[in-house]
Amino acid sequence: MNLLLIAVAILLFFGLIVFILLFGESPRLRNGIVGKANRALTVYIPRWIIGTLKKILGPKNWNRLSHLWHYCFESRNPFLQIFFMILTSGSIYLFLKYGLPHIPGIYLHSTHLIIIPSQIVSLYLSYYMACTVDPGTITADNVQQYLDHFKYDGLLYQPKQCSTCRLEKPARSKHCSMCKACIGRLDHHCFWINRCVGVNNHRFFFIFLFTLVQFCAYGAYLCFQIYRGMIIEWGLDAAYVIDKKTGQHSPITFRKAFLHVLQKDRIIGAIGILATVVSLVVFLFFLYQLYLAGRGITTNEAFKWELIEDSIDRGELWLEEEKTATNDKDKVKKRMDGSKKRQRKVESLEELDNIYDEGFYRNLYNVFFPPRMKKAA
Which is more confidently placed, 31 or 360? Predict the structure, then answer.
């Protein structure tokens, strides 16, 4: 039981660290304890470590370490892909070696012998697609297609040139310093697939997340049912304990029987615990991604909208009305001077429209059936 608590505590700790790193810079959280923890992890502690290492290692060794750090954490590399493959393949191997002999069992039908291989193949295939499909790299050959399809909203996106690529930046695109390219409708850069998630591979990223969730949930279910079968096979369902004081016999609870099996067969238990935690964490992330996609917002744009909401709270966002020959058009901009002529302060985020939100189902359709663009050479 102590081992289980330690494992859960470690996983929760790392989950908290990931949450702080991902959301600590959010305008809603950066002024609170999460923001302070984020600055401690990303600014103060690294600054102290760097200063200490410079004194210990000297200039030459420090430069070597800096190059290694840049490759590992500031450029594309396959480390997390290798880690994922080792962790996944190792867990599958251990399950096939120690868990498969229990199938079929008391609670598991022989049809699982057909389902298990199909699950393994689907996981590897979905991961391969997520890792290899181009995310929507913008080049001189296809930039006009992106400009024609993705219109500027005058709020999140304005016409401008990418200072790195020297190309016109289409709306909803962003330059990725890791991939060293502008990506169409960029959602985020994912280190687990070693590339960006963009307009062209967002669907495969969703498929991979869904496959991973149900794969791990299925694995946890198998481990649980194997343990249930062991309880019957070992006769623990009929076992009892004797009270030393009264001599009274009482049957042991399912919980105690389960923990006894866990102590005796820790490999299947460890696989089940890992599968349960991964399925829950990835499922929550999957729901968050689905929620954003259904609202017509990317992860990158969600952060931009939080910045806009922060500007509204500080009273810095104004609505300027410009009359044209054909219609009245609203422009939203930050007030740069003291003039209030023809301007109205934006009081709520509800006053602003997201022109990329076409309704929940249509938004999801656009993700899973993206426009066909000329692929990068």
Answer: 360
